[in-house]
Write a structure and sequence with these properties.
The protein is mostly helical and 286 residues long. It contains ten helices and four strands; from the N terminus they run ααααββαααααββα. It has a two-stranded antiparallel sheet. It has a two-stranded antiparallel sheet with strand order 3-4. The longest helix is centred in the last third of the chain and has 16 residues.
């Protein structure tokens, strides 16, 4: 990243005599600096990063490299591993070090297309920008509370039997066990129960209804979970089951009885009486 130093002179100086030249050093041992002043293509790095007492050498090197990159450059693990000889495991560990000490921030944002992406922010002086933003932020007035927006309408069952509505209420109350964000108030549960009952009435199992309401939820906090559930119950309402004709009633098979006239066995609902032949003979005799 080409950062211009406002204190840099217009004309480059090769060396500053005495102070930076190796022969100008007073001591024979230790480190010597042979410095030339940069006027283009340089990055100002704080000693708090370059000489950080807790960061590893790889983390310091990655921090310097990232601060030198232009805005919009890719600094994901795969890109950095392709640039440097260290593998993805060491690169990832070094990035976590920088994030722990405030030199990197990772922020999740939603794009206009609805995708969730992660943006990496490089901080050349951890905590400085956040403190300034906090001090410069104007005092905001609390919004005046207004009426609560009503929940969207939900499907209604054809036969709202009490047992069906109770099963729907129990299903809604159990959603918080699958996602704590789906903790519903009594008012929201009463509003949503007929919509769940409409699904159960259409031969949809409770497991299938629960899967529809809890799968692929947004990763961020849910401001109005009941509104989201009402939308899903309405937008994804399945078609009614196919019509099934009522099966004919089974034939009644009476138990065997003994005929009072001929002692033969015949079927009748109750014991006693005569079989068909004996009844015919009695009718002819009469």
């Amino acid at each position: 990243m080409d950062t211009q130093n406002p204190s840099a002179p217009m004309r480059a100086q090769s060396r500053i005599a005495g102070k930076n030249h190796p022969h100008g050093q007073a001591h024979a041992g230790g480190l010597l600096h042979d410095n030339a002043r940069h006027t283009t293509r340089f990055t100002v790095i704080g000693n708090h990063l370059a000489q950080h007492p807790e960061l590893s050498a790889l983390a310091i090197g990655l921090g310097v490299h990232i601060q030198s990159l232009p805005a919009g450059a890719r600094v994901d693990i795969k890109t950095l591993a392709a640039r440097f000889p260290e593998g993805t495991t060491r690169i990832a560990a070094a990035l976590r070090e920088l994030e722990t000490h405030g030199y990197l921030r990772r922020e999740r944002q939603r794009t206009p297309a609805g995708r969730i992406v992660t943006r990496t922010v490089s901080c050349n002086q951890p905590g400085h920008r956040r403190t300034q933003d906090h001090q410069a932020a104007p005092t905001r007035k609390k919004p005046t509370p207004g009426p609560r927006k009503p929940l969207p309408a939900v499907p209604q069952p054809a036969c709202p039997a009490p047992a069906l509505l109770q099963a729907a209420t129990d299903l809604l109350a159990d959603l918080r066990r699958h996602d704590p964000r789906l903790l519903l108030s009594e008012h929201d549960t009463s509003h949503l129960a007929p919509g769940v009952a409409a699904w159960l009435e259409r031969d949809v199992s409770p497991t299938a209804v629960r899967h529809t309401l809890t799968t692929d939820l947004p990763p961020e906090p849910l401001c109005r979970p009941a509104a989201l559930l009402a939308h899903r119950l309405t937008a994804q309402l399945p078609a009614p089951p196919p019509f099934r004709a009522l099966a004919p009633p089974p034939d009644v098979r009476h138990p065997l009885q003994t005929c009072d006239g001929c002692d033969r066995a015949f079927r009748a609902p109750e014991p006693g009486g005569c079989c068909r032949d004996c009844r015919s003979d009695l009718l002819e005799a009469a």
